[in-house]
Every structure is written in C-alpha cells, then in structure tokens.
C-alpha cells in the first residue's frame, strides 16, 4: 500500500504524519525542550574521583557534573561472553585504578539528570540503529531476549555472516526478527559509519564535547519510518529539508531520494486534515462511516475498546448489521492503535456475534490489519466472554500521554461529583466544624454552580443548618474553583 510521509517543522516542535490511501495512519511528535540526553556520547573530562563511593564526577559540558559508577566502567569481556555477564565473570577493578582526574574519557548518558542529580554515565558505548544495536568495544553477537529461543541461534549465525571480518559487537533488536539481509546490511553500514564519525570527532575536539547525539525525529524518519511503500517524504521547512538531505545522502541515500520540499500555500497538515485527526485521536469516541462507533478508554493497566452499532440499522437482518459493524470496527481499531500509539494489554469488545463464520471472519480481518503495524502485536481469539485479548509493544509514550495531562478538576477520573453532592458535603463539614469551634460566622467559598444551588433548591437546608448551629452562613462564589472544590472560612 502506497505511503506518504508529511513533516511539519517548527523551532519548538516537529510533527510527522504517515498517510496511506488518503488516511492518517501514524502520528509522531517531538518537542525541542523535552528531548532527553540518553544515548548521547560525550568526550568528558574527569573532574573528581571518589574511591570511597567507587565513582567519579565527569564534566561533559552540562550545568552539573555527570556521575560515573565503577559498575558502568567498561571492561573487556572473556571471548564469547555476552555484555550482561561481565559483572559476574570478572572481578571489579577499583575505579581509582581505571580513571584519574583530568583524564579525557569517552562516555555515554544512560540516565537523564533528575532534580539535583546529574546525568548517569557509562563508558560502554552502544549505538542504536533501526534493526540492530552496535557495541563497538565488543565482539559479541547477540539476539534480543524477546525473540523466541528456537529462532535465536539461526538469527545469530545469519548476523555473524553479515558482519564478516570487520568485527564489532551487534545485538539484533526485536523488530529486526523478520528483516531481510539487505536491510540488516544497510543498518550495519550506517552504524559503522556513525562510529567512525564519533571516533574522528574524539581525536580533534577538546573535552568537554558532544560527539554524538541520538537522532532527532526528522532523522529517525529516514532511519525508522521509510519503507518500500513510501513514495514521498514532504517537509515544509527549507532549512530542515537541506539538513535532512545532507544527512540522508551520507547515511541513507535510498531514503533521501524520496525527500521533497513542500512549497504549498496551505499548511502541509491541512492536505489530509491531520490536525482534525489529531483532535479525534485524543477523544474517547471514534465514529464509523456506517453510523456505529468505537469507544477507547486508556487506563494505567490496560486499554479497553468497545464496539457499538449506534445509528447503523443495516439493510437485511440484525446479524448482518452486527457483522458489518464489527468488520468496519476491526479496520478502525487497528488504525487507532497506530494513530494513538497504544501499547501494553488491550481488550477489544466486539458486538456479540451468533454465527461462528462471522466471528472467524472478523478475527481474520482484525489480524490482517494488525499485521500492517510496524510495532509488534499479538492477538488471541475470542474468549468465553466474547472478548479479544491482544498486546502491542510499548515503543514510546502514547499520544494522549504526550499531549495531555490529567484534568485538574477530576484528576483523571473522567467524572466529578454533582453540585448537589458537593452541597451536602459542605453541610456536613460545617456541622463538624461547629462541634469544635465557635466562630462568629461561617463563609462558604465554592464554585458558582454550587453557590447557585444553595441559593435556590438547597436554600431551605442551608437555612435549617444555620438555625441549628445558631450561626449565620454566608456564600461566596469563586469562578476559578472546580465543582468539587470549596473552602469553609471561620470568621
């Protein structure tokens, strides 16, 4: 299926939309101020060695010195032993015998600075590609633990043959399980070229210096998102088009040939109503063309998706109506998973179908649509309760987590207590206060809708409480307050 990639760039944010057959399938967003340091490689300078803590502080040019623990200092491995086994197979050499103050040291950030703590570093360099991770200081060839055991050895042998005599350590990532030899060879060449550039920079730049920055979203478009189906990559910034063309010409010439500078008068995302799709992807309800709809609820533990017929009444009988709605929903759900980047456990509640052949057809269509996903997915069959359980690998924050935050009124619950419920809470709270304190007057500061209810339908109850406690109760409306918020001021 033919694919186009649209890139909307601004100094504060980069947005990428993948469009197939006129419909947006994926959205990627990266904000300049929120880019982390993890993966960056620096030429640092040892500022201080602390033998008592078996650690050192390294100046890498940031506001605070970064932290290097002895456990993160690379040591050459015994032949054939994977990196994870180093700590168990070799005695740890004290840090004061490995580094000294003033020493120039190549390091990589493995944890971003948090609060008052500086970044955490490692001297074992790893460079991530689309399909592989390159470990230039090692010779180990490994395969992701998430790939089934019965396939690992064959993949390891195949990768060893592609690496050849040039050496270097490589780990095959999960998404490289089904990659062709040509794709793996291209990734190997890219990673080796990147390492050569890092080494050259380390010999000519004085510390502290940034040697390698993990790719930004624009560059990852060429590395990760371009496929054989990609026809064009259109970008609306002349400056970024030039930079990306130079990057692609050096590292990914095949992908760079599809770059185009967008010169249209309309914003590039208006071509396929991408902003409209973005707004829909942040909502719960997804309308289907037939009149049915899908409800998507994302929670911390899992995501639930419910299919409903809505206004779709069908043309022949009820079974066909349900079947057609479920088939359409199977397409829409698979697209929404990509669009919203939902990961983890996902439960899909299709409308109950009586016929076995209908259930089989819907499940087959759903799995067919999931197979188009670049992220690994697994879907089971219908359970005894008629639910489809599936998983989708988490690769990054979902769109909702990236662009939204919990509501300050409901704190993410999705509902708030009614104004009448809040009124009764206030009445109980005043009665509780009256048993402990003896003020001249009670003043209720609350949301306008709560105060309005007290002045109207609940005025009798408020007056009754005032008579009971023998104190006046006044009301003050505060528009800045949420419906559940209130204060009781003792005057």
TrEMBL record:
A Gene Ontology CC term for this entry? cytoplasm
Highest taxon listed in the record's lineage = Bacteria
- Please give the Gene Ontology molecular function terms for this protein: endonuclease activity; hydrolase activity; metal ion binding; RNA nuclease activity; rRNA binding; tRNA binding
Do you know which PROSITE patterns this protein is assigned to? S1
Name of this chain's protein: Ribonuclease G
Q: Known Gene3D superfamilies for this protein?
A: Nucleic acid-binding proteins (2.40.50.140), Ribonuclease E, catalytic domain (3.40.1260.20)
The cofactors named for this UniProt entry are:
Mg(2+)
The record's principal subcellular location, in a coarse class, is cytoplasm
Q: Which InterPro entries match?
A: NA-bd_OB-fold, RNA-bd_AU-1/RNase_E/G, RNase_E/G, RNase_E_G_thioredoxin-like, S1_domain
Question: Is Ribonucleoprotein found in the keyword set?
Answer: no
Question: Its family?
Answer: Belongs to the RNase E/G family. RNase G subfamily.
**BP terms from Gene Ontology:** rRNA processing; tRNA processing
Record's subcellular location:
Cytoplasm
Alphabetized UniProt keyword annotations: Cytoplasm, Endonuclease, Hydrolase, Magnesium, Metal-binding, Nuclease, RNA-binding, rRNA processing, rRNA-binding, tRNA processing, tRNA-binding
Sequence ranges assigned to domain S1 motif in this UniProt record: 39-124
């Amino acid at each position: 299926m033919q694919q186009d990639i649209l890139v909307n760039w601004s100094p504060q944010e980069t947005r990428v939309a993948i469009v197939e057959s006129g419909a947006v399938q994926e959205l990627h967003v990266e904000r300049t101020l929120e880019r982390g340091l993890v993966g960056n490689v620096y030429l640092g300078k040892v500022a201080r060695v602390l033998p008592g803590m078996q650690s050192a502080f390294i100046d890498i040019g940031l506001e605070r010195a970064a932290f290097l623990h002895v456990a993160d200092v690379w040591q050459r491995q015994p032949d054939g032993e994977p990196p994870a086994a180093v700590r168990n197979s070799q005695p740890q050499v004290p840090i004061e015998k490995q580094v000294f103050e003033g020493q120039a040291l190549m390091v990589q950030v493995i944890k971003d600075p948090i609060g008052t703590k500086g970044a955490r570093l490692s001297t074992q360099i790893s460079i991530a590609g689309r399909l592989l991770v390159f470990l230039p200081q090692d010779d180990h060839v490994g395969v992701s633990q998430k790939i089934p055991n019965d396939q690992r050895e064959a993949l390891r042998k195949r990768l060893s043959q592609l690496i050849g005599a040039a050496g270097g350590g490589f780990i095959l990532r999960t998404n490289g399980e089904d990659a062709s030899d040509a794709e793996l060879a291209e990734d190997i060449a890219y990673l080796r070229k990147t390492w050569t550039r890092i080494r050259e920079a380390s010999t000519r730049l004085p510390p502290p210096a940034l040697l390698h920055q993990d790719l930004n979203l624009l560059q990852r478009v060429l590395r990760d998102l371009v496929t054989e189906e990609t026809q064009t990559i259109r970008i609306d910034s002349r400056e970024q088009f030039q930079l990306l063309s130079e990057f692609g010409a050096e590292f990914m010439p095949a992908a760079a040939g599809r770059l185009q500078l967008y010169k249209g008068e309309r914003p590039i995302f208006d071509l396929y109503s991408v902003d409209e799709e973005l707004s829909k992807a942040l909502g719960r309800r997804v309308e289907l063309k037939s009149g049915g709809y899908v409800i998507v609820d994302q929670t911390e533990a899992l995501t639930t998706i419910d299919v409903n017929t809505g206004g779709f009444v069908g043309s022949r009988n009820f079974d066909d109506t349900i079947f057609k709605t479920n088939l359409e929903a199977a397409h829409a759900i698979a697209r929404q998973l990509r669009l919203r980047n939902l990961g983890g456990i996902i439960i899909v509640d299709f409308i109950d179908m009586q016929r076995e052949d209908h259930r089989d057809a819907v499940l087959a269509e759903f799995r067919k649509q999931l197979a188009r996903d670049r992220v690994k997915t697994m879907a089971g069959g219908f359970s005894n309760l008629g639910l489809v359980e599936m998983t989708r690998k988490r690769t990054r924050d979902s769109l909702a987590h990236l662009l939204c935050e919990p509501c300050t009124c409901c704190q993410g619950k999705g509902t708030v207590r009614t104004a009448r419920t809040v009124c009764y809470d206030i009445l109980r709270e005043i009665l509780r206060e009256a048993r402990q304190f003896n003020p001249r007057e009670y003043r209720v500061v609350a949301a306008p809708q709560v105060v309005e209810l007290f002045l109207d339908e609940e005025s009798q109850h408020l007056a009754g409480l005032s008579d009971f406690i023998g104190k006046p109760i006044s009301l003050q409306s505060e528009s800045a307050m949420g419906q559940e918020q209130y204060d009781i001021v003792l005057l």
